[in-house]
């Protein structure tokens, strides 16, 4: 519409100028050498003046429109889409042009609002997920964006530049920021003296003339723990099914023998009791029952770990109970049992029964490890770390655990003992996971083992 009005206005001015110039040319052609100067001026001057005026009018007309367009492009250049061009005054074609400018600004502002909303929505999602994400300028090390999950995984309070990690954790910086993980890698990194398994992937991209690097981290330690916990529950379901399958034939055989005995008592002549059949049946029940009892004793404790009976417990009271239970047997074996609490008022929210079971299990493992050791000793230490988490450590000076099997000790049914069931440490780990905590182990051959129960706060 604006173009149509502009076209007609420009065409009229061009035609007027054309006819004026044509008239001027015609007037000049009628002049000859006999025409005096005054007459020539009188004839040509008005037409020439009008032509010049018309030309200037055409020039101003065109330049006015160019100035309006240039003004609009200038606002676009500086991304000033808030400007409003008047639509109520001035020539009709300029009003139409202004209306078009305003429509463009309105559309761009709508698009920007939509993009801003999408950006905020995406940013909120990225902040809520457990996957750590960071984008930073490779040349300046300035962080473009980072979510809380990334800072939590690397245990850093804030991150404006990657120099923060480079200065404080150079080894971690080299692994995470300098090495290339374009295809994705699974790594074990050391965070605050704790080994953490992560998945890492990196990508490089350009924004304008700057090069940025995107790093994505996923802590798979918690995922592995959840999967392991789920595996335990599935295992319990399978074992329950197997126990029921074992009980069914025992019950059926017992019912058959009971029926034969009842018939023999009521009518001994018609239904004589076959002692051999009775003995065979009882022997079968005995053997199957013994096998089932052994099976049940091995795994019955697993079914207890369903709900926690939490209460706030003073660690010194917990240690006192453990000392009462374990000290007599350890004294008999000449094993020193020591207790140390860094803060006498240290308390932990726990299920006392289950944590006592864990500590007893760990102490018995230490007793086993301290066999044939001179001056054996077992130490229990309670403390708080710098993050405020409570830790109970069970340390011994026993034979230790070989490096080649230390990663397998928490796997259900794995055991280095000849008669071990392989559920002791697995059960301890399951209990700590239910407490939203974790269990860590450090061991050296012929030096000893330290197992930490970490209660996260």
Task: Walk me through this protein's architecture.
The protein is of the alpha+beta class. The chain has 4 domains: 2-108; 125-219, PAS domain (Beta-Lactamase); 224-304; 311-455, Heat Shock Protein 90 (2-Layer Sandwich). Helices cover 55% and strands 19% of the residues. β1 (132-137) and β2 form a beta hairpin. α10 packs antiparallel against α12 (424-434). The longest helix is centred in the middle third of the chain and has 47 residues, at 220-266. It starts with a helix and ends with a strand. 14% of the residues are buried. The mean pLDDT is 77.
The CATH superfamily title of the largest domain: Histidine kinase-like ATPase, C-terminal domain
CATH architecture of the largest domain: 2-Layer Sandwich
- What is the CA-atom radius of gyration, in angstroms? 45 Å
Strand content: 15-25%
Topology pattern, helix = H, strand = E = HHHEEHHHEEEHHEHEEHEEHHEE
Widest β-sheet, arrangement of strands: 2-1-5-4-3
Q: Averaged pLDDT, please?
A: 77
Based on Cα principal axes, name the global outline.
elongated
Number of strands: 12
Count of separate DSSP helical elements = 12
CATH class of the largest domain reads Alpha Beta
Amount of helix: 55-70%
Name some characteristics of this structure.
five-stranded mixed β-sheet, 19% strand, 12 strands, 4 domains, five-stranded antiparallel β-sheet, 457 residues, elongated, Beta-Lactamase, EC 2.7.13.3, alpha+beta
């Amino acid at each position: 519409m604006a173009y149509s009005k502009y076209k007609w206005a420009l065409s009229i001015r061009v035609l007027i100028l054309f006819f004026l110039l044509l008239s001027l040319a015609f007037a000049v052609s009628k002049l000859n050498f006999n025409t005096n100067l005054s007459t020539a001026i009188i004839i040509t001057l008005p037409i020439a003046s009008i032509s010049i005026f018309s030309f200037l009018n055409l020039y101003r007309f065109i330049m006015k429109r160019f100035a309006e367009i240039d003004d609009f492009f200038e606002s676009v250049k500086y991304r000033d889409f808030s400007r409003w061009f008047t639509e109520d005054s001035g020539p009709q074609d300029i009003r139409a042009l202004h209306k078009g400018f305003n429509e463009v600004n309105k559309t761009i502002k709508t698009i920007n609002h939509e993009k801003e909303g999408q950006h905020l929505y995406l940013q909120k999602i990225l902040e809520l997920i457990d996957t750590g994400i960071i984008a930073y300028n490779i040349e300046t090390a300035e962080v473009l964006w980072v979510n809380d999950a990334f800072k939590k995984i690397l245990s850093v309070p804030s991150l404006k530049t990657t120099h923060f990690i480079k200065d404080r954790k150079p080894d971690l910086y080299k692994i995470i920021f300098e090495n290339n993980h374009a295809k994705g890698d699974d790594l074990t990194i050391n965070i605050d003296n704790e080994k953490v398994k992560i998945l890492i992937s990196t990508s490089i991209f350009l924004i304008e003339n700057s090069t940025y690097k995107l790093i994505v981290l996923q802590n798979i330690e918690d995922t592995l723990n959840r999967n392991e916990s789920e595996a335990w529950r599935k295992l319990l379901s399978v074992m329950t099914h197997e126990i029921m399958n074992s009980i069914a034939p025992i019950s059926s055989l017992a019912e058959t023998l009971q029926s034969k005995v009842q018939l023999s008592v009521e009518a001994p002549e018609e239904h004589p009791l076959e002692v051999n059949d009775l003995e065979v049946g009882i022997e079968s029940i005995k053997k199957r029952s013994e096998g089932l009892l052994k099976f049940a004793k091995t795994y019955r404790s697993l079914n207890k770990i369903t709900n926690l009976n939490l209460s706030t417990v003073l660690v010194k009271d917990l240690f006192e109970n453990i000392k009462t239970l374990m000290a007599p047997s350890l004294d008999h074996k000449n094993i020193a049992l020591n207790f140390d609490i860094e803060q006498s008022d240290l308390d932990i929210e726990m299920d006392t029964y289950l944590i006592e079971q864990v500590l007893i299990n760990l102490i018995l493992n230490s007793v086993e490890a301290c066999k044939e050791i001179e001056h054996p000793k077992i130490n229990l230490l309670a403390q708080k770390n710098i993050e405020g988490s409570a830790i109970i450590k069970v340390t011994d000076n026993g034979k230790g655990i070989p490096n080649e099997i230390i990663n397998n000790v928490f796997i259900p049914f794995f055991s280095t003992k000849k008669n071990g069931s392989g559920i002791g440490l697995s059960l301890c780990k399951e209990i700590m996971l239910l407490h939203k905590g974790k269990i860590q182990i450090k061991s050296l051959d012929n030096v000893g083992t330290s197992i930490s129960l970490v209660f996260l706060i």
